[in-house]
Design goal:
With 178 residues, the protein is α+β, with helices and mostly antiparallel strands. Helix content is 26%, strand content 35%. The mean pLDDT is 90.
């Protein structure tokens, strides 16, 4: 599967992406605000094992984010914790290539994946959490149409300190699309 925009495309992840993921996992500035699984050292074989099963879960949809100019994998995004009973899921994104930070890709990809969640998966609600310290991500989610729901007090632990997480969501009835 491939989802296209003007300068980027989203595609299925594959075990051959392990080298990029390993590189990102070794850079703490890339993984600082990401899922807690990056808090612990991972070998290339750990990442290969994870990637080998990533497309088989009915509870998660993951996409590699690629630049059309060079077909480089620059990050990944998707929806996890999918509940078809509740028609909900949780959005996630990681831009691993730092030279692509600050270019609006987070907002663009958030819109594409959220649209996919509503139009293809039939979800009604998509939520996310972000570190309260990650102001760039919060701004990108706001631009993409997500609304603030609240603060999860001291629910993350980074650099030896507890940090708040911002809870945001968007509903299918509110979605303005791309």
């Amino acid at each position: 599967m491939r989802l296209d925009s003007e300068n980027y495309y989203l595609r299925s992840l594959d075990i051959t992406d392990a080298e990029q993921f390993y590189k990102w996992s070794c850079d703490r500035s890339v993984t600082l605000y990401s899922l807690s699984s990056y808090a612990y050292p991972q070998s290339k074989s750990d990442i290969e094992h994870w990637l080998s099963g990533i497309n088989s879960s009915s509870k998660t949809v993951s996409f590699g984010i690629c630049s059309k100019s060079n077909d480089q994998l620059i990050g990944y995004a998707g929806i996890s914790a999918i509940s078809y009973l509740n028609r909900s899921g949780e959005y996630f994104i990681l831009i691993g290539e730092k030279e692509y930070w600050g270019r609006g890709i987070g907002t663009l990809v958030t819109k594409i994946v959220t649209h996919y969640a509503f139009s293809t998966l039939g979800l009604h609600r998509v939520q996310l959490t972000a570190s309260a310290l990650n102001l760039g991500a919060i701004k990108a989610y706001e631009k993409a149409g997500y609304q603030h729901e609240g603060i999860m007090r001291q629910s993350g632990f980074r650099n030896g300190e507890f940090v708040d997480k911002v809870l945001m969501s968007v509903l299918s009835a509110e979605w303005q699309g791309l």
